[in-house]
Amino acid sequence: MTLASSNGNVVTLIMTAHALPVLREFELLVLLAVFSLGDTAYPLAIGDAIEKRIKRRASRAAVLITLERLEDKGFLTSRYGDPTPVRGGRAKRFFLPKPSAIQAVKESLQRINTMTVGLESLLKKP
Q1: Enclosing domain of residue 35
Q2: Least enclosed by CB within 10 Å: which of 35, 75, 109, 119?
Q3: Is residue 36 packed enough to be buried (19+ CB in 10 Å), middle (13-18) or exposed (0-12)?
């Protein structure tokens, strides 16, 4: 689409359609943890994986809210396991990624890689 601005410049807008919602930073971290945990991805394990890998506190509530938001966006499915005596008879809720989650993570990582081109000397590891 081409527009003329008020100062006389011609501006061309390139419209891209993103079928998938853009991931927020914590959503990306949660999805990566879900990928790494596989069949054992439940909120407490996901939070522990984030804390262990990047030394960032991930509260159970923040993880659960994010998981539910990702499920609402169509990136995850969930199922309940069998109730266990250790949990007072409650069942764990396990989360599994859908193919759209993998695509969304790839797109997020690609955007990050694209934005860091030319910044290698600034961003190099110490």
Answers
A1: 22-109
A2: 119
A3: middle
